[in-house]
Amino acid sequence: MSDHALAVLEFERVLDHVAERAASAAGKRRVRALRPRSRRADVARELDRVGAVMTFHEERPDWGMPVVPDVDDAIRRLAVEGAVLEALELHRLGVLLHSSRALGRELARPDAAEVGDGPLGPLRDALVDMEELEREIDRTVDAEGSVLDSASKELRRIRDRLRGAHGRVVKRLESYLGGLNERYVVPDASVTLREGRYVIPVRREARREVGGIVHDESQTGQTLYVEPPEAIEAMNELRDLEREEVREVRRVLAALTARLAPVRDELRGALAALADFDGLHARARAAADWRADVPELGDDPSEGLRLVGARHPLLIETHGLSEVVPYDLELGPEERAVVVSGPNTGGKSVFLKATGLAAALTQSGVIPPVGAGTRLPVFGSFYADIGDEQSISQSLSTFSAHLSNLSEIVDSADGGSLVLVDEMGTGTDPAEGAALARAMLEELVARGALTLASSHLGALKRLDGEGSGVVNASLQFDAERMEPTYRLVKGRPGRSYGLAIARGLGFPAGVLDRAESYVDDDEARMEEVLERLEARETEAERLVRELDEERARTARLSEELEGREQALSESEAAHAAQAREDARKLLLDARTEVEEAVRELRRAAGSGEGFDDAVHRARSRVEHAAERARRGAEEHAEEAGGRRTPRSPIEFERGDRVRLRATGAKGRVTEVRADRAVVEAGAVKLEVSLEDLEPVEGGDGGPGAGGRRSGGSTSSGRGRPSDGAGAGSGSARGGGWSGPDRGAARLEVDLRGLRVHELEIELARALDEAILEDLPELRIIHGKGTGALRKRVGEMLDTDRRVRTVRMGGPTEGGAGVTVAGFKEPSGP
Q: What is the model's pTM?
């Protein structure tokens, strides 16, 4: 790989930013030592390792890298026979063992199997678990480099004696100092240490009085630090104990060093694994900060490349991820060179460097800031000519330095190379520069090198043709605000905007007008075409953006509508279920009321007392039950669908013909009380709300208004399904309903197939309904059979005071299988 190319791409600056995320100096060195690899298998393996650590990091965002101590020298010394490591070195080796064990166990956890058993398997295998040796080191030395009393029993015994000897010496000297004449004693004097021995400070004139050994004196010479003769013997004993301590400490350190020496290779491997993982972890954290995805690797540079959401890593580190505009670039196998044009400060150099860094970092095992779907080939070499290449030391001008680099590129680049050239063809006469740049591009395309070049030269913009291998691209510029947008557009060249920028900066208008007149006609026409194209693209982008916003709004509304529809369906289902349950309860309640009324009638019939009164009470009970059922249904409807709109009450007067809304029964108003009325329906009087009444059509309020309704053709209504039986009847067997609507009474009742007690209930009900509806007669179908049903029907009709006539059915009415009951006229109000 070309060191010059990596230098102009600022490759090492990027590595420095990545290395700062490592926890140890060893991990930082690992990152800074990375360089692009040229073998695809090596690159793939390194990317897999970083990807595995990215997964590990995502699953453990709060996990911290264990300490990686700097113990290279200590491990090397373990190989020297007779070497004894210092206490601090041994402590750091203990830290190494602890970190190795901690990381190894973390990678061995079941939820980390994909990491530990996959790309990081060799790294995990290099980590060691020597917990017993780790505990011995912790018991022997500490982080300050001291040997602990717990290192050996002998060392503890010696140090216990040392502490006693120190105390005795200090106590003896303090006693001696207290017995001296005050004129010899220094104010605030106390026992102190000089040259490792205990001394007392005295005035110079006390030298002869005190005697002993002078170990030091003050700067003025007026104070002497003397070891009196009384302390010399005790101090000698103390020094003997200190030498014993040193020997024991040396023995302990030598023994521990001897235990570590046989495992020095394992320690070296664990240190390398920890440093390696630290470097990988730093790269994984950088990828997370850059929101980068692991790019796919292409098989060959000739296949082209695809960059999705690429950014320059140094711009991210400097300005933040959200401030850097991403770009996409896709080149097919036939597209070997890209010429990027556009105004100065438009980002062309940044684009070239970002693309070069994406490839170089990928091949170094660093995930570049690119999005999912990125596919990069593995290049065999990198070449770059970017920026000011002037070299004063070699007496080269900028153009000469560029020519030197370009010459090397043309000589060395091949089908596996990535070539980056900034401002191609500039620095000399435009015509000659354009000719040289064109020849160089054609040569690089012929060799198969993938080339990215930036240029202002119009001649290079015209190279984009069928089969040329060259494709135009531009970095967009906001013509209204005169600011770059840094958005890459492939397929068309960009405008230079030189004169437009000058005009925006207040350049003299006359000079600019004259300059525009000097522009080559072909160049001017191309600029006009590009300007129109940019305007149309801007408008198209605006329309697409508005369409996307409208689609998003529509999708949002559709989602809300679906949610509401789902909620409504669930509510309807819940209310329907509740309604079915309520209806079932109402029917059960009504059945209970009817059965009770029937039992009351039977009791009255059996006892022979007040049958008419019992009938009246039974009818009232049933009517009240129906009224409760109606009100319950209305209340449920209000709960399920909101409160109903109350009916506007109609003004009724005494004598008006009305119909009860709940049952459909007809009657006359006998009394009006505020918002309620008393209605007489047959033999029953009911007090109901005015809202629950409706006038009978044609009623005039007078006696007999509305007339009697004559019988007519029957139609099946509610009840059991019709079997078509019965003379001239379409009614249902077993008491089927016949009549025009649900609220109407039956014109006939079919009692065939019923038992006697069932017949009694059904016939009584049919008679009551016919009377309430003011029917003139009721056809009772009982069939011929044994005659039992006909007999019982006759008995019931004979005892019913409301029945005026009883006759057998005519030839067209069913003959002997039918009995027709005629009713009395109702009494007036």
A: 0.60
